[in-house]
Design a protein that fits this description.
With 195 residues, this protein is of the alpha+beta class. It has one domain: Adenine-n6-DNA-methyltransferase TaqI, Chain A, domain 2 (Alpha-Beta Complex), CATH 3.90.220. The protein contains eight helices and eleven strands. The chain has a five-stranded mixed beta sheet with strand order 1-10-6-8-3. Strands 4-2-9-5 form a four-stranded mixed beta sheet. A two-stranded antiparallel sheet has the order 7-11.
Length: 195
């Protein structure tokens, strides 16, 4: 199905880095999508005042926040899934994609070779490249039932942890394999202990 058939795109507005405050309403600036966020986030690193937030577009739980611009084709349309409890304001040069699917599943679809080829085709500009939301609405994805989406996300999350979180992923995997080995060792050798 096309993205435009399963959700809506809203363009961010008016948030600049000069609007950041120490604490307040969560916000995501498009540049941070390139430099700080990975696949998803529960918290933002920046905030704006409640007064400023009244004027800004906001992402809610499960929305994708998509960087609409970049200096190269591979980074344009990098997306982060927002899983925060409180709405987060977003800057101009971003899109909010709201939908009712598994948010991480949609986020992973934005990392596929198919999407990479798609955005390369529609990226426009000289120094700064952008893809317009009208083009994003046309991108087609396979859309399995939510149960299948959930299963796919569970598997991809495990691989992502192994590949990108070396401090947790690899030691956790080693520990899991060690426990698996010990379990099977005990099961396979348990006949020896029988009288």
């Amino acid at each position: 199905m096309r993205l435009g058939e399963i959700g809506t795109f809203t363009r961010g507005n008016g948030l600049t880095k000069s609007d950041f405050v120490e604490s307040g309403v969560p916000c995501i600036h498009y540049g941070q999508i390139h430099t700080h966020y990975h696949n998803y986030t529960y918290n933002t690193i920046s905030f704006v005042s409640a007064e400023k937030a009244k004027k800004l577009k906001k992402a809610k739980y499960g929305d994708l926040v998509i960087a609409g611009v970049s200096e190269d084709k591979d980074c344009v349309c990098k997306a982060v899934v927002y899983l925060g409890k409180q709405e987060a304001c977003v800057s101009g040069d971003t899109f909010i994609f709201s939908h009712s699917q598994n948010p991480k599943f949609i986020g992973y679809m934005f990392q596929t070779e198919n999407f990479n080829t798609f955005k390369h085709k529609y990226a426009q500009g000289a120094k700064v490249l952008r893809v317009h939301n009208k083009q994003l609405e046309k991108f087609q994805i396979p859309l399995p039932p939510l149960k299948v989406q959930n299963d796919i996300v569970e598997i991809l999350d495990k691989f992502d942890t192994l590949a990108n979180d070396l401090t947790n992923g690899i030691p956790a995997e080693i520990e899991a394999r060690k426990k698996q080995y010990e379990y099977y060792r005990e099961r396979l050798l348990s006949f020896i202990a029988k009288d």
